[in-house]
Amino acid sequence: MFKNCDNRTIRKESMTTTTREEQKISNKEVRETLHDVIESLIDGHEGFQKIGEHLKDETLKKYFFAESLKRSQFRGELETLLHSTGEHDPKESGSVSGALHRTWGDIKAHLGGGDHTLLETAEQGEDAAKNAYKDALQKYLPAPVKELLTTQYAHVQKSHDYVKAARDSRK
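Given the sequence above, the corresponding structure tokens read:
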């Protein structure tokens, strides 16, 4: 790809051109993108809370409860951005797959699954959160949206790594 003198991007392969304006997404698409991430944050909030209730290690328990609150904070920040796109009453819920994932985690806990098993479940949930952010960040979003998602994504990645390391240390 290269740019020509009138700031159009030309792809060699297909010789098509696009302008920066054509890459921008509509407010509706921004809202849909934020809704997808918010859905994963709701799943994360509820997942960290539920798993935290079953963990035996007190340090992990505190970490999980703090992460649950952090996901709620992230959700609030994204809902504030939704307000700026004209959506004033976002009705949100977690995903069906997230609810099934939490139920599966509860079953494991009740069947005697220890912290290692619960941490495996949490890591899978964190993988889903990372994917939601990756998908969102691949879109051409307005700078304030992209910046906030990038900051939140960095935290989600660190959380994932922490959960994975905790799981690995309990094999």
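Residues 27-54 form the longest helix (28 residues). Try to locate this feature in the token string yourself.
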